[in-house]
Each structure stands twice: as structure tokens, then as C-alpha cells.
Amino acid sequence: MTTNKNNYLSMNNGKKIPVIGFGTWKSPKNVVGESIKQAIKAGYRHLDCAAIYKNEKEVGAALKEVFDSGLIKREELFITSKLWCTCHSKENVEKHLKITLADLGLDYLDLYLVHWPLAFEYTGECLEINPVDENGNTKLARIPMRQTWEAMEKLVDQGLVRSIGVANCNVQTIIDILSYARIRPAMNQVELNPYNTQQRLKYFCHLNGIQLTAYSPLGHGKLITDKVVCELAKKYNRSVANILCRWAIQQGFTVIPKSVNPDRIKDNFKVLDFKIDESDMSILNNLNKNLRTCDPDSIFGVPIFA
Ligand SMILES: NC(=O)C1=CN([C@@H]2O[C@H](COP(=O)(O)OP(=O)(O)OC[C@H]3O[C@@H](n4cnc5c(N)ncnc54)[C@H](OP(=O)(O)O)[C@@H]3O)[C@@H](O)[C@H]2O)C=CC1
Ligand SMILES: O=C1CO[C@H](CO)[C@@H](O)[C@@H]1O
Questions:
Q1: Which residue ranges have their beta carbon within 6 Å of ligand 2?
Q2: Global ipTM
Q3: pLDDT value at position 303?
């Protein structure tokens, strides 16, 4: 087994999160388990899951195998999951965390995130991405973020989750949460890559002690063919994915590339043993075009970043 060379970042509650994690969105049910096992063997100690990815049962089966085989202990892993937008009411927050825990076969999560600062009508235990009315408009629910956040805080009190945070939050939404939070968000997981550098959000989160996780670090695959990044990959004798993940780590973010390909899973982890020069970091930052792969306007018809 590969030696665990994970580096960690400290969150505002003193808990540590490995800087390199493993994404699971769009990992099909029949391969996600194998990819989780390969990731753990390659050295990943941080797994990024979500109820809406609809593969948590399969992730859980793989975790059971690795725990039962003695390959790794539960406490050596940092496991994140996320509350979907249809489950924001105070009753549903605890109910759906417990469904996620049962699916993953765990008795606690290291980090539970509110997946979007958006509340949709409840669709029952079978989650829908966005329930729509007869005109195709997303059915929003009148549930203030404060209700959801207070329910998230209770999960920490009960010992069901070690840390809580948010995803896809802009500066304004975080200011709102900080105005009533008893437990401050430890993490904001957002789209971060050289096409979407989010400098203002980075500055704000840093000032307020909130760590950032870079999701879609490869631009959901789109950045892999970028000419500038390909040139830098040649210069450093690294893969394009390595350059992109290293860019995120050097900004102080945790990063969660996804792959179901065994060679890429191994390669994407090799980002802790080289450094990109400051001048090349600037070249990467200059690629910014505020491009969002996960644009809530196109996914849900709700332009929350406008
Ligand atoms: N909080 C949120 O709202 C969101 C969270 N996320 C999280 O972030 C994770 C990562 O983001 P994601 O959008 O999946 O996209 P990534 O930016 O990680 O890119 C994944 C894509 O790149 C391919 N790929 C992976 N490694 C390589 C490589 N070394 N060379 C070439 N191609 C590669 C993958 O294909 P293959 O599998 O075939 O290798 C896949 O198509 C998600 O899986 C999820 O866990 C993502 C979006 C939103
Ligand atoms: O994590 C994510 C990926 O899948 C979801 C559903 O399509 C996205 O909305 C979300 O941001």
C-alpha cells in the first residue's frame, strides 16, 4: 500500500482536513466502489460524497470492505457528504443526514455541507435535483437558511457530524449565516479552477477563517486541453491534472478531483511533492473568465450568483 503522505489544513474548529480529496459525482454505481478502494490504496484519505450523487450505498459497501479487511480504520478517513436542496426543513436535515449515514455505513461524518443555499419543495426520500411546476420552474420552498443552519448545528451537538459547512455560497450568503451562526461554517466548497478563480470570495473566506474546497478542479474535464496549462505540464514534467490540483493547493484550498480511471486516480494524488513558481501561478490566475460549469441559473433556473 502507498504510504500516506497527505498534507492537512486546519479548520476554524481545530479539526484537520487532508488537502487532497476524492470526488464521486457522476461515478456510476457499478464502478464507484472500486474507485473508492483504488483511491484509498493510492493514499487518498478524504472522500467527497453527496446524497444527490445517488451512489452513497455503493460507496458505503466499499468502505465496509476496506474497514473489514483491515486496510484502513474509519478514523483515518475524512468523509464529507451534503444535504440536498429539497431537505432544508429542520425535520428533514436530521432525517436525511441519518439516511446518508446509513447508506455510507457510518456513525458520524467528518463534514456535512449544505449543498446549495437554495431550498426546494420536499420530494420525499427519493431526492429530485429540482422539482418543477407545470411551467418548468423550480419549486422553491419558503425555508430560511437560518432554520437549516440551526438544524445543522444540532447535528454537531449530537455528535453525528464533526464539522459543518456550506457549498456554493457567495460572500453575501456567508455574511447572512455569520450573523446568526452559533457554530461558524468551517468550509465553503465551491467551483475553483484557473477559469474561475473567485478572488473576492477567497479573500473574504480567508479573512473570516472559512476554508475553501475547490470542486471541479479540472473544470469538469474542460481544462485538461487548455494550451497554457498543457505547456506548464510539459515544463514541470507533470500531468495537466497535477498542475491544476497543485494550483488549488498552493492557493490554500483543499481539492477534490474525481476519476473512475485507475491510472488517473493514482496520478491525481501526486500533487504534494512539487511546487509551481509564483510567475507560473500568475499565468494560471490570468486564465480566469468567471466560467461556471455548475451554474445554478442553467441547472435550476435560479441565478443566485447574479
Ligand atoms: N459542491 C458541489 O456543488 C459540487 C461538488 N463537486 C465535487 O467535486 C468533485 C470533482 O469535480 P467534477 O465536477 O467531478 O470534475 P473534475 O474537475 O474533477 O473533473 C472530472 C472529469 O475529469 C476527468 N479526469 C479526471 N482525472 C483526469 C486526468 N488525470 N486526466 C484527464 N481527465 C481526467 C474525469 O474522467 P474519468 O473519471 O474518466 O477519469 C471526469 O470526466 C465531484 O466529483 C464532486 O465530488 C463537483 C461539482 C459540484
Ligand atoms: O455537486 C453537484 C453535482 O451534482 C448536482 C446535481 O446535478 C449539482 O447541482 C451539484 O452542485
A1: 25, 50, 52, 129, 294, 299
A2: 0.98
A3: 86
